[in-house]
Amino acid sequence: MATGESPDTMDDYMRMSERTTRESLYTLSKGVVEIFGDVYLWKPSLHDLQELYAAHEERHGFPRMIGSIDCTPWKWKNCPVAWKGQYASDHHGSPSLVLEVVASQDLWILHAFFGVAGSNNDVNVLDQSSILDDLLNGKTLDALFTVNGNRYKYGYYLTNGIYHQYSTFVKAFHHPVEERDNFFKRRQEGACKDVERAFGVLKAKWHIV
After folding, report:
1. Are 49 and 157 in contact (CB under 8 A)?
2. What are the extents of the domains in the chain?
3. Which residue in 112, 120, 168, 174 has a CA-CA distance of 20 to 30 Å to 126?
4. In percent, how much of the chain has pLDDT > 90?
């Protein structure tokens, strides 16, 4: 599940047949959905989005902000020896996965995705992520709002400077000149700490074996 491998690639390494591997994966996935689906494995509804908008505007002053998005390396302690070359890099040293998360101000994780083999930063994880799929496929919920007289159809995420210049991502100024730019930079970076707190909670409780 973590690497996106097909079932028959496990034949030699795990000494399991393709059928056994496929059935085991199905059983595991079904159990995860049945146990955690109603609470954790669901996308925000229109009502949820409206509540997120209100909470983030009240807390951070950003109207119609969905949440903060960022990535963090996660060490893979028991990474199989045969895979270490794919998951180790000069950036992280030891084998690791890169976790992409969208989190709200109350630590609700709206989206989580582990990058595939070879991905080691926010951008190449985003290239594999499903975070923009609904937007690209025209399935994103309409939540109209107006800022400074301009009308917008969808909410947005706060990000750091490495992300692409997409309208979905709102970044801080690299080199603020005016006082209002400095003010925006402070507020944007302060709001982005929501996802950093989510990473801290996750790493304090769990680790990848």
Report:
1. no
2. 1-41, 43-205
3. 174
4. 22
pLDDT in tens, 109-156: 888 888 888 777 888 899 888 888 888 888 887 767 777 777 778 889
25 pLDDT exceeds 60?
yes
Residues 6+ apart with CB under 8 A from 154: 135, 140, 142, 143, 168
In terms of C-beta density within 10 A (0-12 exposed, 13-18 middle, 19 or more buried), how is residue 160 classed? middle
Question: Which tokens hold the place of 123?
Answer: 């951008």
Distance of alpha carbon 68 from alpha carbon 25, whole angstroms = 31
Tell me what pLDDT residue 186 has: 92
- For residues 68, 33, 113 and 9, what is the CA-based torsion angle, rounded to 10 degrees? 180
Q: Cα(188)–Cα(17) distance, rounded to whole angstroms?
A: 51
Its pTM stands at: 0.76
Return the bridge partners of 96, or none.
75
The residues, ordered by sequence, that sit 6+ positions from 198 with a Cβ below 8 Å of its Cβ are: 101, 103, 107, 109
Residues 18-24: contacts with CB under 8 Å, at least 24 apart: none
Residue 112 CB partners (closer than 8 Å, separation 6+): 99, 100, 101, 102
The torsion angles phi and psi of 92, rounded to 5 degrees, stand at: -115, -15
Task: Determine the Cα–Cα distance for residues 47 and 133; give it in Å rounded to an integer.
Answer: 20
Q: Quick count: other Cβ atoms within 10 Å of Cβ 71?
A: 27
Q: What is the pLDDT of residue 82?
A: 80
